[in-house]
Recover the amino acids of this structure.
């Protein structure tokens, strides 16, 4: 009697734990569709912000432009965040998401460095174009890896 | 590690599920929690009220009437309690079958 009680309890505890582990990843695996036009817009905004900040040192109007662009992007991020029903906790990231997220920030750093180097050594216009194109491409690559992370996480818990 | 170590507030299946959802999120909407737990509005409200009264969850209501919304956020005490509960749960299920503590 005691062993069958413990076996039933163990089964319940085990399934409860498995379900808790699965549910703790759902904020990360619930996706929001992104329209195709968002990617080139993000590329342009990133490049415009970077080069406005660069120019702000010599021209105050570019500084104001940089602030306006940053405010516009913050508004856009907040608008997207409101469409999400849950805001994922970065400190509780499923393992599958670490590489795409680290890659995202590393990519931002690399694109900034390369675009700045091109602007310094060649031309501001070329640097701007390279920055916008690279940022747009980087966003697309990030989304692809993000979706793979979502699929891998769902597979780990036997979900479609 | 015995069953007595489990948090009785969190241990109920629906509340454990709600806490697990909030564990992975900074904040979550009412609809998000309700859809993933598969419970009714009133049932979810009741369960979250219990968690709020235990100090594990903050409930935020914004707007009024039909345009209003409710969201949940786990408190620091809630995170500690949830992590401790999950650790206890994991220790129980991973304990050897012969462990006498396991049957209590």
């Amino acid at each position: 009697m005691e062993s069958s009680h413990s076996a039933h309890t163990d089964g319940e505890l085990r399934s409860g734990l498995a379900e808790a582990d699965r549910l703790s990843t759902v904020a990360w695996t619930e996706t929001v569709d992104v329209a195709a036009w968002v990617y080139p817009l993000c590329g342009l905004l990133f490049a415009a912000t970077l080069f406005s900040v660069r120019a702000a040192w010599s021209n105050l109007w570019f500084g104001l432009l940089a602030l306006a662009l940053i405010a516009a992007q913050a508004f856009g991020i907040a608008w997207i965040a409101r469409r999400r029903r849950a805001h994922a906790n970065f400190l509780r990231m499923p393992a599958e998401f670490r590489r795409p997220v680290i890659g995202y920030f590393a990519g931002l750093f690399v694109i900034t460095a390369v675009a700045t180097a091109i602007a310094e050594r060649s031309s501001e216009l070329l640097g701007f174009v390279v920055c916008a194109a690279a940022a747009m491409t980087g966003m697309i690559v990030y989304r692809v890896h993000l979706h793979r992370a979502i699929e891998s996480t769902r597979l780990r818990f036997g979900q479609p | 590690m015995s069953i007595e170590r489990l948090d009785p507030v969190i241990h109920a299946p629906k509340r454990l599920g709600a806490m697990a959802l909030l564990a992975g999120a900074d904040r979550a909407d009412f609809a998000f929690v309700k859809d993933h737990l598969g419970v009714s509005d009133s049932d979810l409200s009741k369960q979250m009220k219990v968690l709020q009264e235990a100090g594990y969850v903050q409930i935020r209501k914004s707007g009024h009437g039909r345009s209003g919304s409710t969201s949940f956020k786990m408190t620091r005490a809630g995170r500690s309690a949830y992590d401790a509960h999950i650790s206890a749960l994991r220790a129980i299920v991973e304990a050897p079958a012969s462990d006498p503590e396991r049957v209590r």
